[in-house]
Design a protein that fits this description.
The structure is a homodimer of 477-residue chains. The first copy, chain A, has 477 residues and is an alpha+beta fold. Chain A folds into 3 domains: 14-274, 2-Layer Sandwich (BirA Bifunctional Protein, domain 2); 284-388, Rossmann fold (3-Layer(aba) Sandwich); 404-474, C-terminal domain of ProRS (Translation Initiation Factor IF3, 2-Layer Sandwich), CATH 3.30.110.30. Helices cover 35% and strands 28% of the residues of chain A. Chain A has helices at 14-24, 42-60, 74-77, 81-87, 113-123, 170-190, 236-241, 265-274, 302-318, 332-341, 352-357, 377-402, 410-416, 430-440, and strands at residues 28-29, 39-40, 64-65, 71-73, 92-97, 100-108, 132-141, 156-167, 196-199, 211-218, 224-234, 244-246, 252-254, 256-262, 291-295, 323-325, 346-350, 359-364, 369-373, 404-406, 421-426, 443-450, 458-460, 467-474. In chain A, strands 3, 7, 8, 9, 10, 11, 14, 20, 21, 22, 23 and 24 form a 12-stranded mixed β-sheet that branches. In chain A, a hairpin with a 6-residue loop joins strand 23 (458-460) and strand 24. In chain A, helix 2 (42-60) packs across helix 6. The longest helix of chain A has 26 residues, at 377-402. Strand 5 (92-97) of chain A pairs antiparallel with strand 5 of chain B.
Chain lengths: 477, 477
C-alpha cells in the first residue's frame, strides 16, 4: 500500500500526532465515505487480533462466549424506560427491507441488554442455572453527533466486548463487579497501560444501572479516556424483562445482574500511551510482528547473509515468535524508519561481521542495543521482551503519575486540568459538581478512586467546604 | 439452562430432526423475537469458534485479516448496476439516526464489494501492491422473504468469512479461484464434510461476476446445501470502482479480482452430515468438548474415584485436549444421554475396577469401546481421534455417494432427485435448463463438476439430445 513520507508530527502535538500515526502506521483508514466509520488496515487489525486474544483468554477462564443478533425490535428496545432515554438520540433505525417498510423498526444495538435479557428470561429457571456469565464481541452503533475520532468516538464500534452476568443475590452481583474490575486491570496490565478506577457520579452512570465503576487512562494531552466500564444493574432489568429463578425453597426470586464492556478504545490507549515521535511502540504481547530481521548486505557475502537471516527467521518462528524478514532491496535506514513507525518491538541486524563472531545485533524500539549470542538468541529475545515490557509499563506509569495533581482549591483544580487530571475533595452533591465543573471547565470523572498512583483521603469539598472524598476532575474524550 | 427431555426425532425425518437438535444440543435458540434472527448458545458458539479457528489458520497462510464497516452509503451501493440488481429486494436500509432522517440511507452489507472496492481504489497504486488478498469475518444481512432456517437461511448471517483479492492479470485471478477452491476443500476435509464443486449456470452466478464456482454438500434429505462460493470477478468491479495499478512500464491497467465466501452454513453441514438419532456427532477438530470424563462411583471408593478422575482431567488438559469432568450427582445414563446429544467424540469412564487395573474405558460417540492403558492414555486418545475422524469422513462420503445417481433421461432424473442428486448431460442452453427443471421439479446446480464421487463425461443433453456435459440437477436449500 502507500508508504508514508515526511516526518510524523511530534507527540507533544498529540491530536495531530494521533491522526497521522493512524495511517502512517497502517492502523485505520479514515477515508471511508461515511462519517464516524473507519476501515481497519490489516496491520492495525493485527494489533486488535492480538489484544482481543488476550482479552478472550481472560474472559474464557470463567465466562462463555456467545452471539446475539444485531437487530433489536423497537418493541423490546422500548421496554426499559430509563435505558432507552439514555440512548434514544443515538440509535440507528432500520425501517426498510428491500423496498418494503418494516412493520416494526429495528434498532442497531447500541449495547445488547435489550437483545439479551428477553432470552435470559427464557434460559434461567432455577438457582442451579446461576451464576450465568456470558460475553460476546460484536459491532455496536451510536449515531454520534459530536466530533468523531477513529478508535475513540465512532458510529460503528467494531470491537465491543460486552459481558452480561446473572446472579442469585445482590452480594454475588457486587462481587462480580469486583471480579470484572480485576479482570480489566489484568488486561490493561498485559497491554502495559496504567489505569485509574473510579465510581461515576450518579448522572453519569449507565442508563438503568445502580452504579457504574469506570476504568480510565490519561492520554498524552492530559485528557482522560474511558477504556472500560463495569455496571451493577441490581434487579432493575430483571424486573423489566422478568428474569427470575426458583430458589432452593421453591420460591420465585428476581435475579441480580451486572454488565461490563471494553471496546477498541483499548487499542487507542495502547497507541497513545506508548507511541513516540518516531511512531508506534508496541509491547510484544500485542505486536503483529514481534521481531523484524534486517540483513546487512555488504559486498560479496550477500548470499551468505541472506541465508543466515533466513535461518534465523526460521528458528525464531519455530520458537513461537512472529517474525518478518525484511529482505527488500532498500537502504537499511528506510527499513528502520518503516518498522519503527509500526512499533515493532525488536529489530535484529545480521551481517558478515555478525556471522563471523556468531552474534546478532538486537535493537529495541526504544533504542537499547545489545549483541546477542547467536546460539542463545531465543532466550536472549525472551529476556529482552520481558525487560522491554517492564520499561514500557514503568514509563507509562511515570507519565501518568506526572499528569495527576492533588489540589485543594477550585483555582488549583482549574490550573491542574489544563495539562492533566486534578484530584480534589468533593462532597458528592450535584450543586457542588456544577460549581466545580464551571470553575474548571472540566468534568467530575468519579469518586472512590482506585489507583496505585493516587493516595485518597477525606477532606473538605473544594466547592462548599463540607465533608468530601477524593474525586477525579478531568477533561475527557 | 433448560435440559431437554424426550426423544430426538429420527434423522430420517430430517427437517424435524434438524429443528430439534438445534435446541436440544444447545446450538441455536430460535425464540429471538425477529424472524430469521437466532441466538447462538455458548455450546453452539464453541463449535463455530473451533471451525472458524481452522478457517482462519488456513486463510492466514497467505491472506491478511481486516475489517470494513457494516454500513454502506446508498450512493456507493448503487454504483454497480448489475450487482445492486441482484440484491435490491434483499437489502435492509437504515434511514434514521436518533430521531433525524439521514441524508443518505445506509445499507446493511449483504456482502462487502461496494464497501471494500472504493478503498481498494485508494490503496492500490502499483503492480508491487499486487496481489492483494484480504479477508474479514463479519455479520451480513439479507431481507429474506422466503422461509428462514437457522444457520441456513438467515436475515443476519453472523459469521460470513469473505475474501477479496486483486491481481494484475486475468490469469492470476483465475489461478486464485483455483487456490480458493483448494483452500475450501481443505477446510471441509478438516470438518469431514465431503463436497462437490461445480460451475453455476450463468443466471445463477454472483451478480457482477464472470463466473461462479460453488461448493455444495448433500444433506440427509437429498437436497444440496451450498456451503461456499468462489467468484471470478474479472475486471467488472475494477472498472466501476476504478481499481487500477501502474504496471512495470508505467502504464495504468485495470486490475482483476476474485471474491469468495463461507458462512455458518458450514456449521449446518457439520451438524447435518454427521449427526445421528442420538444427537450431534462432532469430529474432535470442531468439538468444544473433546473428552468427557464420567467417574463411575460405586460404594465406598467415591473419593478415590473422583480424585483419579480429576487427575485424568488435569493430565488431558495438560496435553491440550478440551476436557469436561462430569462429576454431577446424576445417574450415568443421564450423563451419557446429555453428552451424546452434544456430540462429544469421546467419553472416558473411570471406576474402582479401572483404578485397580490401571486402565480407562473409552467409548467413542459412534459406540466403539476400548480399554486404554492409563499410562498411555494421551497417545491412546490421539489415535482414537485419528481413527474416529477417518470413520466419520468415510461414512459421510459413502452416504453422499449413495445420494448421487447418474441418469440418462428426464424421467430418471425426476426420479433420482426425489431422494438425492442427479448427474445428467446438459447442453448448457437456458431453454433446455428450463425443460429439465420443469420435468424434475429441481434446479440445474452446475456443470464442470469436480468430485471424487462422480465420474464426468460428455454425452447427449437429456433435454435436446445435443452435445452436453455432466451437470448436477438437485433440489437445493
Amino acid at each position: 500500500m502507500e508508504e508514508s513520507t515526511g516526518a510524523l508530527p511530534r507527540k507533544d502535538d498529540f491530536s495531530q500526532w494521533y491522526n497521522e500515526i493512524l495511517w502512517r502506521a497502517e492502523i485505520m483508514d479514515v477515508r471511508y465515505p461515511v462519517k464516524g466509520l473507519y476501515v481497519w488496515y490489516p496491520y492495525g487489525f493485527g494489533i486488535r487480533k492480538r489484544a482481543y486474544g488476550i482479552l478472550r483468554d481472560l474472559m474464557d477462564r470463567d465466562h462463555e462466549e456467545t452471539l446475539f443478533p444485531l437487530l433489536i425490535p423497537k418493541t423490546e428496545f422500548m421496554k426499559e424506560a430509563e435505558h432507552i432515554k439514555g440512548f434514544e438520540d443515538e440509535v440507528y433505525w432500520v425501517t426498510h427491507g428491500g423496498t418494503s417498510e418494516l412493520d416494526v423498526p429495528l434498532a442497531l444495538r447500541p449495547t445488547s441488554e435489550t437483545a439479551i435479557y428477553p432470552m435470559y428470561s427464557l434460559w434461567i429457571r432455577s438457582h442451579t442455572d446461576l451464576p450465568l456469565k456470558l460475553y460476546q464481541i460484536v459491532n455496536t452503533f451510536r449515531y454520534e453527533t459530536k466530533h468523531t475520532r477513529p478508535l475513540i468516538r465512532l458510529r460503528e464500534i467494531t470491537s465491543f466486548k460486552e459481558a452480561h452476568t446473572v446472579h442469585a443475590t445482590r452480594e454475588e452481583a457486587e462481587e462480580q463487579v469486583e471480579a470484572a474490575l480485576a479482570l480489566y486491570k489484568e488486561f490493561y496490565d498485559a497491554l502495559c497501560v496504567p489505569v485509574i478506577l473510579s465510581r461515576r457520579p450518579s448522572w453519569d452512570k449507565f442508563p438503568g444501572a445502580d452504579y457504574t465503576v469506570a476504568v480510565d487512562t490519561i492520554m498524552p494531552d492530559g485528557k482522560t479516556l474511558q477504556i472500560g466500564t463495569v455496571h451493577m444493574l441490581g434487579d432493575h432489568f430483571s424486573r423489566t424483562y422478568d428474569i427470575t429463578y426458583e430458589d432452593a425453597n421453591g420460591d420465585q426470586q428476581y435475579a441480580y445482574q451486572t454488565c461490563y464492556g471494553i471496546s477498541e478504545r483499548s487499542i487507542a490507549a495502547v497507541i497513545s500511551v506508548h507511541g513516540d515521535d518516531k511512531g508506534l511502540v508496541l509491547p510484544s504481547a500485542v505486536a503483529p510482528i514481534e521481531v523484524v530481521i534486517v540483513p546487512v548486505i555488504v559486498g560479496t557475502r550477500r548470499d551468505e547473509v541472506l541465508s543466515a537471516a533466513a535461518e534465523l527467521e526460521s528458528e525464531l518462528k519455530g520458537a513461537g515468535f512472529t517474525v518478518k524478514l525484511d529482505d527488500r532491496d532498500m537502504r537499511p535506514g528506510a527499513k528502520y524508519y518503516h518498522w519503527e513507525m509500526r512499533g515493532v518491538p525488536l529489530r535484529l541486524e545480521i551481517g558478515p561481521r555478525d556471522i563471523d563472531s556468531n552474534t546478532v545485533v538486537a535493537v529495541t524500539r526504544t533504542g537499547r542495543k545489545v549483541k546477542l549470542d547467536r546460539r542463545g538468541v531465543v532466550e536472549g529475545i525472551s529476556s529482552i521482551f520481558a525487560e522491554f515490557r517492564g520499561e514500557l509499563f514503568e514509563a507509562a506509569k511515570q507519565a501518568m503519575a506526572d499528569r495527576i495533581t492533588v489540589v485543594a482549591t477550585l483555582e488549583e483544580a482549574a490550573s491542574a486540568v489544563k495539562s492533566g487530571v486534578a484530584v480534589a475533595h468533593w462532597c458528592g452533591s450535584q450543586e457542588c459538581a456544577e460549581k466545580i465543573e464551571a470553575a474548571t471547565d472540566a468534568s467530575i470523572l468519579g469518586s472512590d478512586i482506585r489507583s496505585d498512583l493516587v493516595t485518597v483521603s477525606d477532606g473538605p469539598c473544594i466547592a462548599c467546604g463540607g465533608k468530601g472524598t477524593s474525586t477525579l476532575i478531568a477533561r475527557t474524550y
